[in-house]
Amino acid sequence: MSKPETSRRTAIAIMAAGKGTRLKSKHPKVLHEVGGKPLLAHVIASARKVAAAADIYAIIGHEADAVQRAVEGTGIRFVRQEPQRGTGHALMCAAKPLAGYDQVIILSGDAPLISSTTIERLRDFHQRSRSAMTLLSAHLENPTGYGRVIRAGAKSHEVKEIVEEKPCTPAQRKIREINSGFYALSVKDLFDHIEKLKTDNPHGEYYLTDMAAVLRRAKKPVVAIQTDNAWEILGSNTRAELVELDQKMRADKCRKLMDEGVTIFNPASCVIDSDVEIGADTTIEPFVQLLGKTRIGADCRIRSYSVVQNSQIGDGVTIRPGCVLDGARVGAGALLGPYSHLRPGSEIGEGAHVGNFVETKKVKLGKGSKANHLTYLGDAEIGEGVNIGAGTITCNYDGVHKHTTVIEDGVFVGSDSTLVAPVKLGKGAYVGAASCITEDVPAESLAIGRSKQIVKEGWVAKKRSGR
Length: 467
Ligand code: UD1
Ligand code: CA
Known about the structure:
Elements (H helix, E strand, L loop, with lengths): L9 E6 L17 E2 L2 E2 H10 L7 E5 L3 H8 L5 E4 L6 H7 L1 H4 L4 E6 L7 H14 L3 E7 L8 E4 L7 E5 L6 H4 L3 E10 H7 L17 H7 L4 E5 L12 H21 L3 E2 L6 E2 L4 E2 L4 E2 L4 E3 L3 E2 L4 E2 L4 E3 L2 E2 L4 E2 L4 E3 L2 E2 L4 E2 L3 E3 L3 E3 L4 E13 L4 E13 L4 E2 L4 E3 L9 E3 L4 E2 L4 E3 L2 E3 L4 E2 L4 E2 L8 E2 L11 H6 L3
Parallel strand pairs: 1-4, 1-6, 4-5, 7-11, 12-15, 13-16, 14-17, 15-18, 16-19, 17-20, 18-21, 19-22, 20-23, 21-24, 22-25, 23-26, 24-27, 25-27, 26-27, 27-28, 28-29, 28-31, 29-32, 30-33, 31-34, 32-35, 33-36, 35-37
Antiparallel strand pairs: 2-3, 6-10, 7-10, 8-9
The site of calcium ion has 4 residues, from loops.
């Protein structure tokens, strides 16, 4: 009895070993980013919706260690291709791990827009057609740079061969049906015939695309299905293509967020990474950047020229123009900016205010506390209802070590104070303006750390007369 279709074991192989010569970069191509994430990470994310991590193999080679480090958190497996002798050779290197599977879906690590729906469609079509090789093709207005699909006949499902751009005849070059670089293959047919690939092409490489003609010559059926969405298969061989994909991905992201109830004025001016989450009724003004793993609550307003990276923002927060946040957590109802700089480890409490030209780093600012003007707060634990006067500085660094400043609930720090850490201001204490505080201040006390004011009456007149 033949196995039911669904029980056929499917692997996904992602080709990601190439150098990316056309990018003219010292970094491997698949680690270049679109939507704020490496190309390869996008492909893996789509593959993961179709297969278990243990059935996904990334074929890596150029800068393999760096590539593996960047994506190994996904739990997928890795196959090394050394040296890199073409896309056909990449699959030759994966023969062993793929031997236990019935079919393999091959994806390209440099085509990040591929959706899980399309991968499933390719897999299902391949199973139904019982072909040896199914390739995903697309119709492009401008097919430049892609391999062309030569069909067996005018309306045939079957494919005769794939011809790369360079060796195309002028007539073939006019064909707009291109090879996406995504395929589904019977593992047995692939490895029974892969040794027939030759390197008689301008780059002297083993082209996986030649498998179409190889299998057809062996009387094995090769078919193609066209994608409904030509965007999805676009690759990124050049910087211009990378930027185009980035824009497309970000435009899609903004549309999705708007569908979820977020207002984004002038989305084309905003840079929102693909993993960013935003709650409903939040408004994003023009020229805002939301990067990395940032999460923004509901009912917030993020005003223009703010850059928020890897930060968690609660509900109802207002970020006024020109703020820079990195690795910060901001409680509900807080008010930031304009021009606040929240560095990693900043934890701003509910309803707290951080105002203009205030820099924070590794700071806990309690509920309802305020630091409104011209202040540096670093390595500090600040309680609730604290008022930090304009120009206050925590002197946290003695040139060798960092020290902590503790400011308990309800403290009032007068303007222009320097708090030399380690130092502690007890609950409800007051610090007189312009104090230099080097010793702990007990709760409920007033500390004044400045020289007493001297007034010399009549001094000016004396100076004028030269006496
Ligand atoms: C390839 C196809 C082309 C198709 C296009 C779609 C071949 C010969 N050509 O061309 O028909 O239209 O994709 O985007 O396959 N790679 C390896 N090992 C190697 C070489 C490449 O893993 O030795 C990886 C690359 O990292 C990349 C992918 O394979 O992720 C595709 O290689 P690339 O050089 O970009 O192929 P294209 O020229 O775009
Ligand atoms: Ca490519």
